[in-house]
Amino acid sequence: MADRTAAQQERLDALLQEKRTFQPSEEFRRQANVSDPSIYDRARRDLEGFWAEEAKRLDWFEPYRRVLEWQAPWAKWFVGGKINAAYNCVDRHAASHRRNKAALIWEGEPGDSRVLTFGMLQREVNRFANVLKSLGVKKGDRVAIYMGMTPELVVAMLACAKIGAPHSIVFGGFSAEALAERINDAAAKVLVTGDGAWRRGNIVPLKKNADAALESTPSIEKVVVLERIGKAANIAMWPGRDLWWHELMDQASDHCAAEPMDSEDMLYILYTSGTTGKPKGVVHTTAGYLLGTAATHFYVFDVKEHDVYWCTADIGWVTGHSYIVYGPLANGTTSLIYEGSPDYPDRGRFWDICDKYGVNILYTAPTAIRTFMRWGTEWPAKHDLSALRVLGTVGEPINPEAWMWYHEHIGRGRCPIVDTWWQTETGMILITPLPGITATKPGSATRPFPGVEAEVLDENGRPVGPGAGGYLCLTKPWPAMFRTIYRDPDRYVRQYWSRYEGKYFTGDGAKVDEDGYFWLLGRVDDVMNVSGHRISTYEVESALVDHPAVAEAAVIGRAHDIKGQAIAAFVTLKDGTAATDALKDELKQHVARKIGALARPDDIFFTAELPKTRSAKIMRRLLRDIAERRVLGDTTTLADPMVVAKLKRQYEETGQAE
Ligand code: PRX
User: Fold this and answer.
1) Could you please report the per-residue DSSP string of 371-410?
2) 73 cis-preceded (ω within 30 degrees of 0)
3) pLDDT reading at 658 higher than 50
4) pLDDT higher than 90, residue 19
5) Looking at 263-313, which runs of residues are DSSP E strands?
6) For the whole model, what pTM was predicted?
7) How far, in Å, is the centroid of ligand 1 from the Cα of 420?
């Protein structure tokens, strides 16, 4: 793995030492949704048969003719089937013994809470589906959603699904400009937003950001605004364009038939950061996606009928799409949603919520776990966590120390941990333990899910041996795989399917050990992973050079104890600009304004020159070595090795460059 970073090398070295294993307890195994390891062989021998069997967990309006048509890289799953995702997530449960079962338990940050049963959720979804129709939204039209974590966000998504209008959700932490960019790429017709959302006691100004975005989004005809905050949000409503959610809902009918969708009709677009260029619109389709998320949710989390399941992600990211909304609700599971921050009003909020609702399954991110570790064990110790049965993690590699802490202080030694590897593009969990079968090792995502085939390859496409690092690739299609990049199929082919003919290139480094366990090493491309958020170096660099003082910028993710990676920017200023601390702050602010606070650089270093190859390519690998205070890697391809040597010296002497 030629471009393996020093940090990955270090993780690899450390992981090679990890020998602890944790077997599922006999008690857990006995009650598990799957405890027979033959599921792996069964799926390997007959991939289509395996998924056809799983497809019975969904209700189809018309049966499919073929399970799979695969001409790499183009996949069609459940060809010819007719199905509706909202019908499967809501209506069929509302018509069953689950009618009065909680579908959503919602906890607002200020402490207010609501429960929506499947019956109630159905009424809300139908009403909002009718609202969308009344605003002129038709099957195939895109609807942008920019909301906080309230039940109405789920209602809006499912209403889109019900009438066959793909949603494009933009995380509420993104800026006006980022929102506009995503709305325009999708050419969305309607925007659904809120007057604001609560976050750490502050108001997230969703509507104000939306207003700024809407100055340059010609496709948007109407804006629906949910009142969450009230007067304090201090928003303006544009006559003719902006409409209140509650006023529209009051007039809408409770009845709405589900649109029969083709299996391969688009369910949603979700934008994510790539190596180069603008964020790309990952396209997920209906049947395969819903089935993949439902099946993995059932097996990986071992959900039972009466479980309360809590995934702490934001619905603005894929984890929320797949494992707060579609997977759990398709399974008729009670899904908990929390609006706010884990440290509000105090650092025990998550454990208070687990205690209050008797959460059985908790799914969170390594960054959160590392933060809880730093806050100390006294916070979880104050609460009754005895209902917890399964713990999950996602979003970034988990270090064995955090894994052990989660195991001891949250799972109290009792709960299997499922470290789940997947991506926006994969739609569903692909590498994961099955808690009733798999012996876990702290820091390893263990094995591919049944039917999923993964390989770790070297530069030339040959599998590397046990213990060596390489590139993680997937060699068989899976139902929830993304089908393309919205309006950019070439990019789909080029970026994911061209490095190794007919194989999906994940962008992650990995190793496989002697037992066939996978250990994820982090991204091998220019995508950073900051607190589990995916940000490209390119986006932050573009935001920096957009500032009038900046001539050139190179951005890297440097290793960070809590966040996984922190954003460090090396910036050259235009002639005559003074390199001041005030300017650093201004640049950080500028990036936050352009993209969102999640992309704000942690460090900015001013430098007269950046290390470049003879073909003028910036060598970020060396900047990473500098920021992580390591010995510099190979510098022989540099145009002027003195530049990097000087930069390193300055950095070490002053904690910053000149
Ligand atoms: O680098 C991997 C990391 O997150 C990337 C995908 O990010 P995103 O599309 O935002 O989706 C995140 C949630 C599914 C991957 O390329 N990643 C995700 N889960 C893990 C992980 N790295 C290591 N271990 C994981 N369990």
Assistant:
1) HHHHH-THHHHTS--TT--EEEEESSPPPHHHHHHIIIII
2) yes
3) no
4) no
5) 266-272, 280-285, 308-311
6) 0.96
7) 8
